[in-house]
Amino acid sequence: MLPNNGVMKQRKRTKSITMDDYIKAAKRGQREAEMELLGPGFHSKDRAHKSKKLYTRKQKHKGREL
User: Fold this and answer.
1) Which has the higher per-residue pLDDT, 59 or 66?
2) Rounded to whole angstroms, how far apart are CA atoms 18 and 2?
């Protein structure tokens, strides 16, 4: 004979957070924080810095104004 007169108790199912869910949430949070900091639009992360020794013929870069 089953306990509790044949009525089985149902377990509450709890959702467990997987590693993939954690990574996805962390990336989303990081993107939102970056958007708040920099504002809307595209912002390059890996831009090479222009060398001061790089030659240019433009007058505005020569330090002279005509």
Assistant:
1) 59
2) 36
